[in-house]
């Protein structure tokens, strides 16, 4: 039983930001009912790679959910949505602003159905403002917020982050915002509308950049593998590749000089005496360090740094990361059985609760896998479900409705 056991979430989102949010809630025990289009379902189902015809992209972020396939432009389909919404605590959607109103599933419509509903909208630019009508994607947001202008090597073309940082960030932000709204609801009985924007959620992350800009007017530029404020806190070349060196404060710098590279004289060197001086002379410092570090393999230096209490580590590729024994022991790679793909690995749950741990209870659902089950839970009999299927209001997996007991 997870900490969110009993929370019912109606998930009308698709692709990544919304589904990542609802996966986090589901991992922690919430019951998530995923609403998918009758034609094709969640768009991420059309994104490869595939195993036995099923999308592994969809598989990775839709575990622990049940899928119902509804045609929200059909009267019977929208009525089924309303029935489920009346029992839900939370609704999550990521349509472009205005679409939910045209479908009559916007916050005001849902609030009339259930006064205390928590309704979370995730969009490109938010529900208000001059850009609210625009659509956006992760990379557009990375460009819009300035992230791409400060990522990569100096004087290189703009570079994106290695992952969909704003889609995932929006999902995480939405998850904690929903939980905060739920705590408020438990205290007061009040629901509310939560409005999140891909183009905004990342701006508060630019802490060092904001510190420099608002204090000095400094516009942040790419720093490659170097930290923006501390030095040496960066990628360092060794004899057999690169490692990450984290001598990010004066104490670790001095430990590095004395116990790792055996250069105690650098502590009083006028070029390197303070962090500000080390940043000012970073090119020279990097050359001096790499003259030493390239004499041995990276594992030698990682071990030596660890012994000296200087944070350091390898720069892994993804395969090396997911095979790391530390991550494996902490169950950050897990395996689940899927009815079509068979046993498949996925990323685990990072939050470790002592009393109410999250769990991977089921694989991502097939398209419409639970349509019949969910509708029966809400009072529909099999004859009505069959009729709705024939009218295009719903879709069940393999487009077959059992006729047992009809």
TrEMBL record:
Keywords: Transferase. InterPro entries: CoA-transferase_III_domain, CoA-Trfase_fam_III, CoA-Trfase_III_dom3_sf, CoA-Trfase_III_dom_1_sf. SUPFAM superfamilies: CoA-transferase family III (CaiB/BaiF) (SSF89796). One of its GO terms (molecular function) is CoA-transferase activity. It holds the Pfam family CoA_transf_3. This is CoA transferase. It comes from Salicibibacter cibi.
């Amino acid at each position: 039983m997870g900490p969110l056991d009993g929370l019912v979430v109606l998930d009308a989102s698709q692709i990544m930001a919304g589904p990542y949010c609802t996966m986090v809630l589901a991992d922690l025990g919430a019951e998530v009912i995923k609403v998918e289009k009758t034609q094709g379902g969640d768009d991420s189902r059309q994104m490869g790679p595939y195993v036995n015809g099923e999308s592994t992209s969809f598989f990775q972020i839709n575990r622990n959910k049940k899928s119902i396939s509804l045609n929200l432009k059909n009267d019977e389909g929208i009525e089924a949505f309303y029935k489920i919404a009346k029992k839900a605590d939370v609704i999550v959607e990521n349509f472009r602003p205005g679409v939910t109103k045209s479908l009559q599933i916007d916050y005001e419509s849902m609030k009339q159905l259930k006064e205390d509903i928590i309704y979370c909208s995730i969009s490109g630019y938010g529900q208000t403002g001059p850009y609210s009508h625009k659509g956006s994607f992760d990379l557009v947001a990375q460009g819009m917020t300035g992230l791409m202008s400060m990522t990569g090597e100096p004087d290189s073309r703009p570079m994106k982050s290695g992952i969909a940082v704003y889609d995932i960030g929006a999902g995480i932000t939405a998850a904690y915002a929903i939980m905060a709204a739920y705590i408020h609801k438990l205290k007061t009985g009040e629901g509310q509308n939560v409005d999140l924007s891909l183009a905004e959620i990342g701006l508060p992350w630019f802490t060092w950049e904001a510190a420099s800009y608002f204090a000095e007017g400094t516009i942040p530029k790419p720093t490659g593998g170097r930290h923006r404020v501390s030095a040496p806190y960066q990628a360092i070349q060794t004899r057999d590749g690169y490692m990450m060196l984290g001598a990010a404060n004066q104490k670790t710098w001095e430990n590095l000089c004395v116990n790792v590279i055996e250069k105690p004289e650098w502590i009083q060197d006028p070029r390197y005496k303070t962090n500000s001086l080390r940043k000012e002379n970073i090119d020279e410092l990097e050359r001096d360090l790499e003259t030493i570090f390239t004499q041995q393999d990276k594992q030698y230096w990682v071990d030596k740094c660890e012994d000296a209490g200087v944070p350091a580590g390898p720069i892994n590729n993804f395969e090396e990361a997911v095979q790391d024994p530390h991550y494996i022991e902490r169950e950050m790679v897990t395996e689940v059985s899927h009815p079509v793909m068979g046993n498949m690995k996925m990323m685990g749950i990072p939050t470790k609760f002592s009393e109410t741990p999250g769990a991977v209870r089921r694989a991502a659902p097939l398209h419409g896998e639970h349509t019949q089950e969910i509708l029966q839970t809400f009072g529909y009999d099999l004859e009505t479900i069959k009729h709705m299927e024939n009218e295009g209001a719903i879709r069940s997996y393999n487009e077959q409705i059992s006729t047992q007991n009809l």
